Amino acid sequence: VDPSADEYDAFVRARTTALLRSAYLLTGDQHLAEDLVQTALARTHRAWRRLHETGNAEAYTRKVMYHAQVSWWRKRRVAESMPGVMPERLGGDRYGGEADLSNRAAVRMTLRQALLRLTPSQRAVLVLRFFEDRSETETSDVLGVSVGTVKSQTSRALERLRKVAPELADLYVAGGAR
Amino acid sequence: MTFDQLRSDLADLAQEVSIVDLRDRSIATSRRTAIRRAVGASVAAVALIATAAVGIMLRGTQNGALPPANPTPTVATSPTPSVTAAPSAAPVGTTVDGTAYYFATTSAGFRVYSMTGGKASRHYDVRVSNDAKCVPNSLIVSPDGRWLAWVEDSTQTGDIFGTLSLARIDGTGRRKIDNVVCNFNELSWTVDSKRLLIHRNVQNRGLTQLVDPASGKLDPAPEEPVGETQSVWSTNRAYRAFRPIEGGVPTALVIEDSGGRLVRRVDYSRDDDSFTTCGYTVKGISDDGRYVSIGGCATDPSRIMYGQFVFDTTTGRHVTFSIDHAQVVGFLPGGRVLLRERSQTTGALAVATLSGQVLARSVEPAELAGAVLVGYRP
């Protein structure tokens, strides 16, 4: 038994859930998310010996995934081609109360469609900053861009989010950044 | 409500994905790729030998009329540019002074042109595949018209980074700098054309640098301002315009003088389709600090270099020009503005006053109808 192969298997088992969740937010689609993570894991597998020795497998896989997602717009134009029918405006009783479940579903749908109307790089910075809770510096490392670029992309992403889904903007933007 | 709500809703949305085992699929993909690469390397080696055999003959037949597809990266003594005059339509009325620079898509890549007095000249062919998305998204000419810069895609880095080529306008003296970001940030020249601002990825670190086209020397760029959008400066450097970022979102339009004193703060909004996707950006400011040009914001697949409107910040009104579908290329000294008129079949450059009066107009020759304007030297 190749111990290196066992370690790759353990790495995949441990990280697939987190990677798929990020990938789903990046692509808005189950199959595309699987393809994206599969692509990243395949690259990781090819470089496994080196990555295992340096202990950088997790960071490498994430970088590959985010870079692949941003570059996919050239090949698939996922975000630009997916039309979105916006649901009714969200009600005020979002959490708790009788309307909770339907409201949560509406928020999900609105947010998913709003994310797909952002550019891939805008989506990437939002997922890294607000889903993975990465700092601006960590986000800049993953994407390989400057901190200033992360700031400007985040700002553009939030402004666009406000434009394409004003009902979300009321909730997210009015309160200011953390 | 704060961004904690966004965090919570993203986490909630992410729960929708079904967790599947990707171990076998990833290993199978990895092995397929390894086999494909091994086969590809063998084919490439054969192709290289074949190309070397016919290369001399092909070059001989072109008789030096076109620059080579891959000029050497070393600085060469520059021959006089072989500028080819092209047929052009007759200009209407007074022609626009100065020289405008363009690129047009060709079957072999992208062709750089200039237009002076309504006549087009061909300068250089950037010979790449039309799939090279970074090139049209980055190609730019320096304000003095001497230098050309563009980024070519790198397949090894997933098309996010590429190789910057920096050359004289005729393509000679080409230098290359690797790992330059091509779709997050645009290349931009300093006003004196002495340095080009680039964004690079070096050992997985994002760097913003200034490169001297003459020497190739790289220096760190000044820190980008925190809490505001990128500034635009008037040509006389007396005023700058920007948008403060509050709560993560650009807010009002602010004009300051060169000493950092507030001149004006304006709440600008425009509820038409042009700005519904990602808001507006300030593209330029006049020498008296009164007028700004306003445009949309760039997205990944494209860049927006110029403004769509000229806005008078003292009256809150847009300037109306007697030109249809005009892009606002930039403000000129003496209270003038350079506009580009575009339609399906033709275009024109025009100089107008900031009261809207058109002073000069040059109709663009037919070969520039679909071209992108990437520089102007007054």
Strand content of chain B: 35-45%
- String of helices and strands of chain A: HHHHHHHHHH
**Helix content range of chain A:** over 70%
- Contiguous runs where pLDDT drops below 50 for at least 5 residues of chain A: 73-96, 173-178
Oligomer: heterodimer
Molecular structure report:
The complex is a heterodimer of chains A (178) and B (378). With 178 residues, chain A is mostly helical. Chain A contains ten helices and no strands. In chain A, α1 runs antiparallel to α2 (30-46), α1 (3-27) crosses α4 and α7 packs across α9 (147-164). Chain A is globular and about 55 Å long. In chain A, 51% of the residues are buried. Chain B has three helices and 27 strands. Chain B has a five-stranded antiparallel β-sheet with strand order 1-4-3-2-27, with no helix packed on it. Mean pLDDT of chain B is 75; it is low at 36-92. The chains are: A mainly alpha (178), B alpha+beta (378).
Quick summary:
By secondary structure, chain A is mostly helical. In chain A, 75% of the residues lie in helices and 0% in strands.
What is the strand and helix layout of this fold?
The complex is a heterodimer of chains A (178) and B (378).
Chain A: H1 3-27, H2 30-46, H3 48-54, H4 57-75, H5 78-81, H6 100-116, H7 120-131, H8 136-143, H9 147-164, H10 166-172
Helix pairs in contact in A: 1-2, 1-4, 2-4, 7-9, 8-9, 9-10
Chain B: H1 3-14, H2 23-62, E1 84-85, E2 99-106, E3 109-116, E4 119-127, H3 134-138, E5 140-141, E6 147-153, E7 161-168, E8 175-181, E9 188-189, E10 196-202, E11 205-211, E12 218-220, E13 232-233, E14 239-242, E15 245-246, E16 249-250, E17 253-257, E18 262-266, E19 281-285, E20 291-295, E21 309-312, E22 317-318, E23 326-332, E24 336-342, E25 347-353, E26 358-363, E27 372-377
Antiparallel strand pairs in B: 1-4, 2-3, 2-27, 3-4, 5-6, 6-7, 7-8, 9-10, 10-11, 11-12, 13-14, 14-17, 15-16, 17-18, 19-20, 20-21, 21-22, 23-24, 24-25, 25-26
